[in-house]
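Folded chain entry —
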Amino acid sequence: MSAASLPPSPRLLPEIVSQAAEIQALRRDIHAHPELCFEEVRTSDLVAERLRAWGIEVHRGLGTTGVVGVIEGLPGPRAIGLRADMDALPVTERNQFAHASRHAGKMHACGHDGHTAMLLAAARHLASHRDSFAGRVVLVFQPAEEGGGGAREMMKDGLFERFPMDAIFGMHNWPGMPAGTFAIKDGPCFASSNEFHIRIVGKGCHAAMPHFGIDPVPVACQLVQAFQTILTRNLRPVETGVISVTMIQAGEATNVVPDHVTLQGTVRTFTLDTLDLIERRMREMTEQLCAAFGATAEFEFSRNYPPTVNHTHETEFVREVMKEVVGAEHVQAFEPTMGAEDFSFFLQGKPGAYFVIGNGDGTHREGGHGLGPCTLHNPSYDFNDQLIPLGASLWVRLAQRWLAQP
């Protein structure tokens, strides 16, 4: 693996390039043994073993299965946090190459195996070049990004108190964006993730005699349509929000009006003010519309992940380091996505930024891959191993530049 395998001519660290095959093998081993949120025992054991082998101070147990490595450089007052997530998804892999998942129903379909590998490669280099920076690098190997809120749990276990840092940074691979490129954006870049569960209770009866009951089905139909008016008539037109009713469940027989209907779905926003408005209006509409039909309602709204909001100074700092590594022409402005990311919790506690590295168009996949596209959360996905020396080189340069600030 070499710089020549990437479209641009990035400034890769030669030592990282020379070790890339070893880290690739490690990445593929992690891919073959995926573990779901808070179950990353084998993965965290592997990470901790490698860190210790490279002379890095290791701490276990934060967020249940999280691993923290600490690398002390020359004496210096500053500290930087670098984060990689470790968990897999409950997806059955369709790939059949040698490193495909060996555990049915579990798969690294989001590239967390690659994120872990890139940070391990950077950790190895930083540990063997402690005279290249002054201060402390905190390596955060986080569990349970996929719905478990592992970042929040590591914070509850004292991540920032036990390992003080001035800022924290995270990186995600991005399929469809050319390999050899990065993208970043100031402000909101990933949306909040929230779920709702609504139970509309009417009065069941014979379908031939609906006047004896209170039919919750037309109430549910009107409510689904009414929710969309929150976005078109309550939000300012320049604000962004998504309300998706993804599950409707009712009835057991065709000749029976059911006594209840359940609605479930998600809400995504880039700001908490927008989220507050949507939740309030959804609750009001549910209660008042149901009452107008003589039905009652139970409304539950769960806030899972807040929006991921990059800090201005840290965003611009990363952008400049990206330019050093791949050139300004290969640094893009990230287009915000309504997907969610629990790195958002870290950014509520510390300054920092979250950014993406291009994973390519999927042509990197070896023979035996599934027929589906190489997109996130797809059973035919695979991380692009060509990114390992590039991502690791960026991590090293970012740590060195950040710690060198006056």
Observations:
- The longest strand covers residues 74-85.
- The mean pLDDT is 96.
